[in-house]
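To illustrate the input format used throughout this study, we show a single complete record. The first block contains the structure-token representation of the backbone; no residue identities are included at this stage. The design step must infer an amino acid for every position from geometry alone.
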């Protein structure tokens, strides 16, 4: 049962990467059902976190909140620190979708700090992209473009491809920033962000309180 649940969860990951959220949801739910039946506690926490993420993408925010609230204490009790960061990140995305921007920033910042301490570069990619959305929503388009560049730079470092699901999420944001800034200014800001690398992304995000330009404020 444990192996079957793991396979279903992994297939859910693949479906999500391909942008097939309904199939991903079905696979994650099936995996969770097996894990609940057999009391596989860590697997339950992982499944709940994955489900909260895909439900946010599908716009089913109430169910996403239920799963997110259930999974965090499970993962904390088990000491699954990186998974806790993922769950807190999802909570931040949920708060962002609900228009609670300050709360979203708090949750995303907590997840970011954990990922920094773990040197979780894959997680830092998602943090940069989430903060880019938040920056754009708070009228900081230059910062948003720079953070997208930072995420792209880290992807290159760790050789992580941009899956279709990620492309679908980022496409509207990139188009909006190009329209707001203009194509060439957007590319210039994105290019500046490329130089941050994973070690520069966290302090750069922390510097965004006082200005629209993270690279001016961040002193390294």
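Output of the design step:
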């Amino acid at each position: 049962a444990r192996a079957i649940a793991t396979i279903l969860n992994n297939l859910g990951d693949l479906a999500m990467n391909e942008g097939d959220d309904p199939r991903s949801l079905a696979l994650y739910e099936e995996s969770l059902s097996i894990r609940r039946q057999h009391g596989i506690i860590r697997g339950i926490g992982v499944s709940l976190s994955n489900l909260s993420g895909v439900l946010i993408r599908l716009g089913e925010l109430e169910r996403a909140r239920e799963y997110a609230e259930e999974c965090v204490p499970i993962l904390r009790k088990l000491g699954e620190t990186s998974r806790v960061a993922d769950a807190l990140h999802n909570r931040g995305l949920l708060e962002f979708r609900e228009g609670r921007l300050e709360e979203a920033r708090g949750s995303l910042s907590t997840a970011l700090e954990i990922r920094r301490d773990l040197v979780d570069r894959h997680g830092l990619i998602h943090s940069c992209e989430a903060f880019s959305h938040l920056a754009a929503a708070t009228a900081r388009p230059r910062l948003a473009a720079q953070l997208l560049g930072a995420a792209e730079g880290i992807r290159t470092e760790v050789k992580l491809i941009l899956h279709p699901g990620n492309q679908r999420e980022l496409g509207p944001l990139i188009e909006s920033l190009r329209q707001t800034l203009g194509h060439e200014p957007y590319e210039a800001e994105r290019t500046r962000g490329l130089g941050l690398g994973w070690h520069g992304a966290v302090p750069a995000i922390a510097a965004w309180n006082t200005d629209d330009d993270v690279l001016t404020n961040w002193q390294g």
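Structural context for interpreting the output: The radius of gyration is 17 Å. The first helix runs from residue 2 to 17.
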